[in-house]
Amino acid sequence: MPSRRNYVVRPQSPPRCCCLHSISKVTGRDIYPPQLQDRLAASEICRPQAAESQTLPAVNDPVGRWVAHPYHQAWRFRGLYSFLLVAMLLGTGIAYLIIRHRNLYKGAVDHNYARAVYAAELMGFIAVVSYALHIIVKPWPFDPTVPDAAPSQPYNIRVLIPCYTEDTAMVLDTARAALQAWTPPGCTKTVYLCNDNKDDQARHVRKQGMAEMGGQYMARPKGRAGDGNPKSANLNWCLNQIYSPHILAGRRIPANEVISILDADHKVASEFFKALTPLFDRGDDVAMVLTPQFFRNVKHGHDIFNHVNSAFWYLMQPTFAVLGLISCTGTNFMIRAEAWQEVDGFPEHTVTEDFAMGIELTLRRWCCIFVPSALAIGEAPETTRKVFQQRSRWAKGHWQIFWSPLYNPLLRFLPWPARWHYGLLPNLRMLLIGFWYCGGIVSYSAAAIGAPFVTIIPVVNLWAGIFPLVITKPIAILGTLYLLAANGVIFYSPAELGGNLWFRIRMLWLANTSNLILNFTYLKAALLALWRAILCKNLEFKATGEVVMPGKRSRARHFCSFQWWSIREDLWFSMVGYAFSLVTIVLSIGAIIGTKANHQPFDTTLGICLGWAVYAAIAPCLVLTYVFWHSIGFHKVASWILREHPQWKGAI
Fold first, then answer.
1. Which of 50, 61, 290, 329 registers the highest number of CB atoms within 10 A of its CB?
2. Which of 512, 86, 501, 500 is CA-nearest to residue 312?
3. Phi, psi of 159, deg, nearest 5
4. Can the keyword Glycosyltransferase be found in this entry's annotation (predicted)?
5. Can you name the residues that pair with 367 across neighbouring β-strands?
6. Model pTM?
7. To 10 degrees, the CA torsion angle through 441, 442, 448, 452?
8. How many CA atoms, within 13 angstroms, populate the side-chain half-sphere of residue 444?
9. Contact 286, 369 (CB under 8 A)
10. What are the pLDDT digits (tens) for 512-538?
């Protein structure tokens, strides 16, 4: 569990502490438990500090934190249409699932098969409901700071660029862009290249390049033991060197120290620091300022792996920021150094340190400001293998935290008896935040469990004559309405996503299609994380790999570096599913023609399975065509749906 740290009061500011300490001051009683008093008394950090600061005991409690000048962003409902759409989803979905449960075994040949299909439907309903909140909640228009306005205090900006085996020229270009970016008036900026590469030649070239540009070069010592997360370990080591006087003396890092994290392939725009730094003045509890990710080598109309993820950036992230949930994404953000110190650095217990960092900050009542403008541009993975490797690491990190009893968000945000005196609403809010932090788990589960059934149900029905449910009139009506409402929520496309309506719907469809492509990757990640948790071992951190520089490739964003082992590890499930779907489509059409020729009544289940088989064949068709036939065949197969739009909101 994270250690209990002491809060040091900043000069001319009320103490940042928890409600327990405030209550003890008012009542004159020390209400800390004896065990906590002993730990606080024996703590090395509780030694007397300098006269200008004061140490206060604090408890890592997510409910009772008191802040002098909190940040608050107002929100409102998007409109009647979205509200009615979500209401229709809840009403028809709950009614459909209840009727399905009552008739679960009616006409079912195999009860286990019927239960498995029902579990997949239930998981899909939970995933859509968890996403539905983002289409009804809308923050008020973001009020950006005046570009020429100076922050209220002189911030010291520490820009850290962690790098490993990336191309050295690309790494130095990223550092050069950070050095040349505008610095806010009255502030200072220092760029650090945090090199974790063990190659002596690469270290020498990078060190020499940073010296010529006027930046700082830092490199972790060689021969270190294995890290649970090398990126976090690298950043924490460098920050411990930078802030060693404060850390060794047990003092809190000054409030005007901020940190910016940039991946080695993400170049910032010239106004990045000038636009984000003044936002820390909006509240004492603002820990992070976050911007979306944008990729120069991704064609938005061809984004079958959902690299752009526009729904996440322009629908989900603003809602998270308004409701007090921090969803860190690993790069293109700025964070207070005191917040980094309070959570004991970037988490090293998981391969997704950004997701875990957001949980730790939210537990301590820090908040985040999301700026919906692309102020940095980077590179997406270039090959299919790297794409699957990246998504597998993301899924493993979520499952790794979920399977851990020490870091599970639901367990950490539960309203334990010690928090009951705070009231019902604060505890319900934290419980809801804990559920939202498990939203990724719900989405991964729905894709891993539900997507295979889209292929399995038509095959089993056509070849074995087994359908998982009996279609009655109530099930048909409610199922149709529920399907319409769910798709209405999934494809809800407000103007924030950019482009015209057709462009936005196409992007959301591609995002949904990517789950059908990556479902086996999500399933493997869940099982591997569970197995490693049972063995009490950490997952191996696998970097996405070296990104090819733009000048070293002849075409932008093509998955041409194909290898046979990529089929065996990543694409074999898509190939098998595609083959079964094609055979099922042909046999279903033949069966329907034969039924009509024999003047027999139309089989409803046969028509449903034909539609599902066609839908299940689309995703593997796209990815396999993109890999084998390259861009020419891809355009021939799907040019009607994947046209490039000339404009994209947020391009720089």
1. 290
2. 512
3. -95, 115
4. yes
5. 286
6. 0.81
7. 180
8. 25
9. yes
10. 888 888 988 999 999 999 999 898 888
**CB of 464 closer than 8 Å to CB of 598:** no
Q: Is 430 in contact with 62 (CB distance < 8 Å)?
A: yes
| pLDDT tens per residue, range 362-373 | 998 899 999 988
**130 CB neighbour count, 10 Å cutoff:** 17
Contact (CB, 8 A) for 344 and 247: no
> Is residue 422 predicted with pLDDT exceeding 80?
no
Q: Report d(CA 179, CA 291) in Å as an integer.
A: 19
Determine the 3-state secondary structure of 368 from DSSP: strand
With beta carbons less than 8 A apart as the criterion, state whether 24 and 34 touch. no
> Is the pLDDT reported for residue 652 higher than 50?
no
What are the residue ranges spanned by the domains of the chain?
7-60
Any idea what the Cα angle at residue 4 is, between residues 323 and 334, rounded to 5°? 45
CA distance 216 to 241: 12
Distance of CA 270 to CAs 46, 117, 335, 580, Å? 43, 52, 19, 52
| CA 226 vs CA 348, 446, 453, 532: distances in Å | 11, 33, 40, 16
Q: With left for phi above 0 and alpha for psi between -120 and 50, is residue 619 left, alpha or beta?
A: alpha
Q: Distance between CA 534 and CA 201 in Å, rounded?
A: 41
Number of other residues whose CB lies within 10 A of the CB of residue 153: 13
506-524: b or e for each residue (b if 16 or more CB lie within 10 Å)?
bbbebbbbbbbbbbbbbbb
Query: Is residue 290 a contact partner of residue 330, using CB atoms and an 8 Å limit?
Result: no
- What pLDDT, in 10s, does the model give residues 579-637? 888 998 998 888 888 877 777 777 788 888 888 889 888 888 888 777 766 544 444 44
Contact of 220 with 196, CB cutoff 8 Å: yes
pLDDT, the chain, mean: 79
Instruction: Name residue 316's amino acid.
Output: M
Query: Tokens 């740290």 map to which residue?
Result: 5
CB-CB neighbours of 187 under 10 Å? 19
Burial 254-274 (b: 16+ CB within 10 A, else e): bbbbbbbbbbbbbbbbeebbb
pLDDT single digits (tens) 48-107: 233 333 333 343 444 444 566 778 777 888 889 999 999 999 999 999 999 999 988 776
The rounded distance, in Å, linking the Cα atoms of 331 and 293 is 8
CB atoms within 10 A of CB 77: 10
What b/e readout covers 533-563, taking b as 16+ CB neighbours within 10 angstroms? beeeebbebebbbebbeeeeeeeebbbeeee
Q: Tokens standing for 247?
A: 């850390």
CA–CA distance, 343 with 361 (Å, rounded to integer): 7
Q: Tell me the β-bridge partners of 190.
A: 158
Is 443 strand, coil or helix?
A: helix
Contacts of 435 (CB under 8 A, 6+ apart): 130, 410
The encoded tokens of residue 53 equal 């600061």
480 contacts: CB under 8 Å, gap ≥ 6: none
**Rounded Cα gap, residues 634 and 638, in angstroms:** 6
